[in-house]
Structure formats: structure tokens, C-alpha cells
Amino acid sequence: VQKVLSTAIEEAVKEFMNATEIIVDLDDKTACVTFRVPKDMEILEALTFDRNVEYHDPLGVVFDMASFPPKLVNRIRYFFQILLMEMKHNEDYKFWQNQSHQIIQGVVLGHYHDYVEVELTKNLVGIMPKSQWVPGETANYYPGKVLYFYIVKVQRSPLQIYLSRSSISLPALLLKSLVPWNTFECKKRYIGQKSCILTDSPLEKHLAEKRDDASRELNGEILEIRNFAPAS
User: Fold this and answer.
1) What is the bridge-based pairing of β-strands 125-129 and 160-164?
2) Which of 35, 32, 38 has its CA nearest to residue 54?
3) Rounded mean pLDDT, 51-55
């Protein structure tokens, strides 16, 4: 926040005083503004700050922030709010960018002709285009329904999360979330019908139970699981 405030003061002072070089000291509550004579400040005005100043000299003037006029203070507040929003946007984008190609649980908000709106964490709404729907399960896309989605991509500006239920990666990632200590790879998916998955997990009762849980999440899609071929 200190850095954001310092930048806000710099931007507001640049605009207000038509200056290009500013050093802000929040501890001393001062702003040192460098003017170019006579480009940024007329020589007669510059002489009031330094009687030895000459044409084309840089002139550094230190201003006490307590002396800033109300108009300048309002501009500082404006820039501070804008920069805070930009910082939050960048943090949100970085967070969601790290979630790309993973799965996330969301709540369906609305089902429209060509997209589904989904409420995600951090009060963000994701979009699942019609091309990412699973035809046999569209009746499940009703408001309030909780489902898992694959994060296809994250758009920066405006921040938008694109989701999928038909991705080939979804079945394997669902199993991975249930059996995190093993590897799963979906080799082929007949969307809404059957997925062929390879794993290094023993094909035992515990895995069969987790397979059934994942299958229910996929509206009954059959998950055929086999072990990876042994290395030759």
C-alpha cells in the first residue's frame, strides 16, 4: 500500500505541476519536484526558489505534503483508488492464471442459450461456452447445482475465467483430486459416455470406489481405468 500511495502522489503531482521528475518521501512527508527551466517553469518563477538559477538548469523544489492544495489532494485520492484497483486486478489475474488447466468446484448461476454462468471462489463468475458442454448432462446446468469444471483459460482484461465440462483432462483430474498420491492420464474420452484412463495406482477396491465417485460427478460417464504399460 505504501508503494501504491507513493505512486499515486507522483502521478498527481506530475499532472498538477506539469513536472516529469518527482521523488516522494513518505517518512518526511515531502515531494521533491525537478523542473526544467524554462521548459517546466519560467525563469522569473524559478528565481524565487533559487536566485542563481539559469536557463536550462534543472531546479529541485521540495514541497511539504501538508501544503498541498485541496485539488491536488483530491487527485492523489483518485489515483490511489485507481492504482489499488489495478493492483487487486493483477493479483486476481495471477491467482487464476496459476489455476489454469486445473479443476475447480463451482455453483451454476444461470443457464442461457449459448453459455452457463458459474460462481467460483473469490466472488468471481466463470463462463462455460456451449462448445464446452456435455450434451447428455445439460439438464444438470440449473441454478444452484454444484459441479466440477476444468479451467480452460484465463483472460486478463477484463478478468474472465473460461470453463469446460467436456475437456479430456477433466476425468483424470477428478480422480487425481480423490487419489492425490497417484498419477492419472486420460488417453481418450467419448464425451458423456466413456473415458479411458491410465494410472500407476493399484487396481484395488479403494480405487474402484473413487472411480465410482468421479463417475457420478460426470453424470454416470463410464471410467475405464488401466495401469500404465510396464517399462520395457
Assistant:
1) parallel
2) 38
3) 69
Closest CA to 41 of 23, 63, 24, 20: 20
pLDDT above 90: residue 50: no
Neighbours of 179 (CB within 10 A): 18
Residues in the chain: 232
In this prediction, residue 231 carries a pLDDT of 64
Cell of 156: 486478463
Alpha-carbon distances of 174 from 11, 12, 51, 169, 170, rounded to whole Å: 48, 50, 75, 9, 6
| Sheet strand arrangement including 194-199 | 184-190, 194-199, 222-227
Strand extents, DSSP E, the chain: 21-25, 30-36, 58-64, 103-111, 115-119, 125-129, 146-155, 160-164, 184-190, 194-199, 222-227
CA 68 to chain centre: 36
Q: What is the pLDDT of residues 146-178, one digit of tens each?
A: 999 999 999 998 899 999 999 999 999 999 999
As to burial, measured by CB atoms within 10 angstroms (0-12 exposed, 13-18 middle, 19+ buried), residue 170 is buried
For the whole model, what pTM was predicted? Answer: 0.75
